[in-house]
Each structure stands twice: as C-alpha cells, then as structure tokens.
C-alpha cells in the first residue's frame, strides 16, 4: 500500500529543523547482484587498478625518455614543394583508401565509404538487437568488425610501405638532381619548354619523375587523349584544382603531349 | 579526520555522493585477479588514465607554446631542447596521443566483441563513439601545432580532402583554415579547438560516459 508515512517515496527534508533527520548507515551494497567473488571497488580494487596503471606508466615513461618526440629542424615552409606529406599513423588507412579511388569518384573515399562504416558503428546497438552477447553467436556483427579491422591494418601497412618507397625515390632523385640538365634542343617554340613548365606547375603534386606522390597519381602511361589532358589541366579533376598551369592553349597542348610521351 | 568528514557530511550529505562514486562491488568476471583474461576490461581505465596524462602534460606545454606562425616552431624547439624536462613533457603528450588511440581502439573492440553495447547500454555506446570522434579531432588539430613541414603539409592535405566533400566541403575548409590558405589564422583556430573546444566536449562526454556506467553497472559475464 503506497502513501504511508514510512513509504520510501515520502519526501525527506534533510536538515530541516522541524524534521528529525534520520542518518542512514553507510552499509555495503548486497553482494547478490553478481554471484561469484566480488570485491569492493574502494579501496581494494582501485588499489590493484592503480598498481596495473603504475606498471603501464613505467613502460610509457621508458618509451617517452628513450624516444624523444620528433621535431623537424626548421619551421614549416609552405613553398617547399618537394615535401611528401603524411598524416598521423591513425589516419593513414583513410588516406590510403583515398589513393585507391579514381579522381572523379573521390566522394566515395571522402564521404560514402567512411560515412557508411561510421554510421554502422554508431548505430550498432540498433542494428544488432538480439539479446545474444557472445561474439561467435552473432556472426554478422563479428564478421563485419573483423573485416573492418583487417582492412584498416592492411591499408595502414600499405600506406607506410608506399611512403617509405617514395622517400627512398625522392632521396635518390635528389642525388641525381645536381647533374647539369641537358641543353634544350632549339625548336621553333624555343621559348616554351614543357619539361620546365611541368617542373614549375605540376611536379609539386605529381612528382618530379611523374610517378605521383600521395597528393596526386602517377602520370606515366596515361590512356588519355591530348585534348582530355588539356581539359584536366584547365578545369581540374577530383582534388586537382583548375588552372594550376597558366599558359596559352598551344602551350597546354605541348605540355599535354610531353606528359603523354611518358609511357 | 572522522570529525571533519562528519562536519562536512552533516552539511553536504556526502554519503550518497561517496556511495555513487566509490562504494560498489566489482564483479568477479572483470577482475584480473580472479581471471587473468579479464585484463581486456582494463583498456577503458587505461584510456582514461592516458587522457589524464594528456590533460596534465598539455597544461604544462601551454606554458611555453606560442600559437603564431613566427614563434610556434621556435617555442616548441625551445621547449624540446632548452627547458628542463621539456622533452619529457612533450614526449608524454606526443606518445600519449598515440597510446590513447591504441587503448581506445582496444576498449572499443572489447565492448564490441562482448556485446556490451546492447540494451540497456545503447546510449553509452553512442557517447563512446562520440568520444572516439572527439579524440580523433584532438589528434588532427594537435598535429598542426608544432608547425614544422610535417605538421603543415599533413594539415594542408587534410583540409584539401575535406574540401572535396560535396556541398559542405568548402565551408568546412574555410571554417577550419580561417581563410583560403593554411596560415596564421589556421594555427590560432586549431590551437583554440585543440585546447578549449574539444577538451570541453571531451570532459562533458567523459562525465556522461561515467555517470551512465555507474547508473547501469558493468555488463554481466558472457
């Protein structure tokens, strides 16, 4: 019967001088909620947790002291066009995913695929609604998660491997760079040198050897017509901005032909 | 001590608060002292522990850091090479940023594979996913702050990628960069986001995460 004066729901005026305060004893909660060997959180379990945290902290500090945080020798130079950018390691898989997608479908890599999996992740409790909790009894959820983990590990590994390769390539390219460039053959268009134009306008993203960088794909062995390349040069494509190379239509055509000559 | 507690308790009614925070049982199946495999339940605590390391080391870093493009790099270099223990504090923040992601990832996998996000804990899962996003945001904004080439070009590429998002992309880029290029206003924005906005969100979400876990208790054995 509800509503009696000793009902639990009765409002309690704590500290009101007109009402005698009844002090509750600080009793431990019943152990019956979880059968088995339970342990009070404070201080017993917290002490053990703290010991585990100290072991973790020691390992962490050994890492910190033995491996100083990296810092390059000079401040950022926005004009340094040869720098090969690399995001922090936990974004590498997204970056690598982006590189695998052709320029005109870039939205797949920036929004659709990551967005789809993020949404699956966020809504997991409403997609996987059965009361079953053991992973081997809910194969769909487990399979998807294992697939995602495997993809992340693979993409990260591939990104690191490719970045290493690019660093080695750019290092060997820098060694070869000081060699004097061959004198340009005099032609009727002597004033315009497509190679020089490429080095000025395109090499920052597509690499000095046209092999591409993380910012842009390789230009070797393109199966495009001259006009198509001129169009991309003029209007951009995917992440490539329009009008990176400013020149006459004739010069654009020459530059496109020069790019396409690398097969 | 006892008297002091009683004095405060009489006025503030501390006992219920204390009961909510600390006075609960830890069940056997999450206690590594009973089942060693229960160490997988430690990752959440270790994530929090690393977050505390990040907050403390970050507070000391801000004592030396200057968020402008002329001095940012030099202030970090000064801290790294000249200040006593400066390289240790910066190292803790640098490595802690990676460790927190690893621990967070392991904690997420534990929660996922034990199905702990199921009824009635759906909301806590959502709060956790938001925490994950917040911490990734902290990683992205913090990466720019040393202002060396690595920081600069990673952010530049990151913002160029954000720009390709249909409809909102250019707005996101302008909002984050504070202009057309990655420059002085980008650095101050990233600094503000990294030091004020995201930590505020992080603490609010952490509070929600902990209140929910105390309210609902830890999920039972498999």
Write a structural description.
- The complex is a heterodimer of chains A (263) and B (222).
- Chain A is an all-alpha fold and 263 residues long.
- Chain A is built from 9 helices and 1 strand; from the N terminus they run βααααααααα.
- The termini of chain A are far apart.
- The relative contact order of chain A is 0.07.
- Mean pLDDT of chain A is 80; it is low at 1-5 and 183-189.
- With 222 residues, chain B is mainly α.
- Chain B has 9 helices and 1 strand.
- In chain B, helix 3 (43-62) packs antiparallel against helix 5, helix 5 (86-113) runs antiparallel to helix 6 (122-144) and helix 7 runs antiparallel to helix 8 (169-177).
- The model of chain B has no long low-confidence stretch (mean pLDDT 94).
- Chains A and B meet through strand 1, helix 1, helix 3, helix 4 and helix 5 of A and helix 2, strand 1, helix 3, helix 4 and helix 5 of B.
- Strand 1 (39-40) of chain A pairs antiparallel with strand 1 of chain B.
């Amino acid at each position: 019967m509800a509503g009696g004066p000793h009902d639990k729901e009765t409002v309690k005026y704590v500290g009101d001088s007109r009402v005698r305060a009844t002090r509750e004893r600080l009793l431990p909660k019943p152990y019956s909620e979880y059968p088995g060997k339970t342990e009070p959180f404070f201080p017993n379990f917290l002490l053990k947790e703290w010991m585990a945290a100290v072991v973790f902290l020691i390992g962490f500090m050994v890492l910190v002291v033995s491996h100083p945080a990296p810092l390059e020798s000079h401040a950022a130079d926005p004009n340094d066009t040869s720098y090969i950018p690399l995001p922090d390691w936990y974004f590498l898989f997204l970056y690598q995913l982006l590189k695998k997608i052709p320029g005109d479908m870039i939205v797949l890599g920036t929004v659709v695929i990551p967005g789809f999996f993020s949404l699956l992740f966020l809504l997991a409790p409403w997609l996987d609604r059965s009361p079953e909790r053991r992973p081997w009894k809910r194969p769909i959820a487990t399979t998807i998660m294992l697939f995602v983990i495997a993809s992340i590990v693979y993409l990260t590994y591939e990104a690191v491997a490719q970045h290493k390769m690019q660093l080695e390539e750019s290092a060997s390219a820098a060694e070869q760079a000081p060699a004097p460039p061959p004198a340009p053959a005099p032609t009727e268009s002597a004033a315009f040198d497509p190679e020089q134009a490429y080095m000025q306008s395109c090499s920052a993203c597509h690499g000095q050897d046209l092999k591409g960088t993380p910012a842009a794909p390789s230009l070797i062995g393109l199966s495009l017509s001259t006009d198509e390349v001129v169009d991309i040069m003029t209007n951009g494509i995917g992440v490539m901005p329009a009008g990176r190379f400013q020149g006459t239509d004739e010069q654009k055509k020459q530059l496109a032909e020069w790019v396409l000559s690398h097969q | 001590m006892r008297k002091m507690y009683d004095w405060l308790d009489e006025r503030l009614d501390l006992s219920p608060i204390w009961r909510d925070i600390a006075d609960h049982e830890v069940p056997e199946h999450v206690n590594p002292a009973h089942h060693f495999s229960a160490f997988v339940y430690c990752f959440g605590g270790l994530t929090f522990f690393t977050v505390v390391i990040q907050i403390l080391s970050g507070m000391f870093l801000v004592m030396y850091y200057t968020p402008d493009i002329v001095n940012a790099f030099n202030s970090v270099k000064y801290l790294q090479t000249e200040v006593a223990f400066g390289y240790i504090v910066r190292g803790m923040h640098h490595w802690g940023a990676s460790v927190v992601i690893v621990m967070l990832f392991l904690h997420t996998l534990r929660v996922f594979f034990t199905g702990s996000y199921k009824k009635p804990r759906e909301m806590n899962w959502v709060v956790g996913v938001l925490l994950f996003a917040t911490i990734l945001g902290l990683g992205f904004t913090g990466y720019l702050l040393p202002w060396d080439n690595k920081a600069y070009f990673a952010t530049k590429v990151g913002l160029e990628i954000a720009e390709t998002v249909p409809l909102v992309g250019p707005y996101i880029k302008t909002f984050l960069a504070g202009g057309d290029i990655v420059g002085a206003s980008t650095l101050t924005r990233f600094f503000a986001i990294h030091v004020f906005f995201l930590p505020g969100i992080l603490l609010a979400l952490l509070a929600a995460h902990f209140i929910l876990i105390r309210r609902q208790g830890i999920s039972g054995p498999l």
